[in-house]
Structure of Multisubunit Na+/H+ antiporter, MnhB subunit:
Amino acid sequence: MTTSRSDAAAQRWWDTCDRPREHWLMRESERTRWPRSLLLEVSLRIVFPTVLLVAIYLLFAGHTRAGGGFSGGLVAGLAFVLRYVAGGSVTGLRRSWVQPPVVVGFGLIVALLSAIVPVFFGLPVLSTAVWTVDVPLLGSLKIASSLAFDSGVFLLIVGVVLNLLRTLGEGIHLGELESELHDQQPGGTSP
């Protein structure tokens, strides 16, 4: 008797061990109408954090090289667009704990405050101060006060992209639900 229970438990584990446990991969019950690409979902697990790291690099490298808050925000937004394309609106955009309008508002406040703070010190709007910090492994780093402005722009762009994806995704999802309800009605044509 115990052998059959352990065999059943082992078989159950074998059948379910390779199912995804993360919330940002689609589950079978939450499948959208567009075809699901397992290759895209799996490769996105590697690409998504890498693209976000490139976006943060662009944010910090923007003061001495090409980049900054706007281009870093666009690259981070592209990462979220890729995530949306791979998994649809069920990838966590609807259930995120920070809503996109809050990210937009916080980015706007940070950018506005960092632009106006120099006025209180008798400097023109958007003035920049540069500090040099010695970091043991990296050496001497220059930190500009305009990094706060670029961070605000970064958050603003990412919030706008997330809000756009959420809005478009909800519209597509509602359209799919309406078409399913129309197909299930007695007067509708169902296959």
User: Anything to note?
Assistant: The helical segments are 2-16, 38-61, 69-87, 100-116, 146-184. The mean pLDDT is 78. Strands lie at 130-135, 139-144.
